[in-house]
Design brief:
nine-stranded antiparallel sheet; alpha+beta; 252 residues; 5 helices; 28% helix; single chain
Amino acid sequence: MSFKNISLSTLLFSGLLAIANPANATIVLFETSQGDFEVNLLDNHTPATVANFLAYVEAESYSNSVIHRSMSNFIVQGGGFTYDREAEQISEITSLATVINEPLFSNVRGTIAMAKKGDDENSATNQWFFSVANNAGNLDNQNGGFTVFGVITTAEGMKIVDAINALTTYNLGGAFTDTPLQTEPTEDSPITDEHLVIIEAVTIIDANKDTQPNLPPVTSAENKDSDSSGGSNSLLFILMLLTINFLRRVAK
């Protein structure tokens, strides 16, 4: 078939399909003391962050880990500490190298993002958090933006995270100033797994990166706002110019 018979609309449509192709994703299962839920990771759009997270998953670093922070109608945070049932002790999870920030998607309800130091946008390691509200206006712009790298797959799964967020929090000292507990502690007894919200395991249940999640919206940062209106028009214009030049070359 001659290139001369290919229409401009066909080439434009093909180009748009390539650009609009949604992210591939790995699915992981969070097994917690409050219930189990699945998270679809956004491998294609946040590859470094997903690879970092999966390194901890494959090392079983998140097994018997603790939800150490919960802020009402804001976030539920974990990934920093594990609980040893035999020794009844909490220990820090050994962190790997920091990962580069990839703030593409908005921190809306149901997303998981990396936690990091307040003065370094590329300081994320092992800690992460779920947004239980639309935090785009705050977290998309703060400290270079927080990298969303996955989404909770079902409404039932979101209810579990909401239930954790609804638990009463306690100041246990150190990094545990807003720790949700399943049962109220007493003064004369230690904090154990009966009190803590424990993530028993995070495991890969679908390693096929062709699974398609419902993508969250693109970040609401100021430099992305213009892209949502004029950006798409500019993209179409560039595609048209490239296609016209291509057709001129093949027509000669």
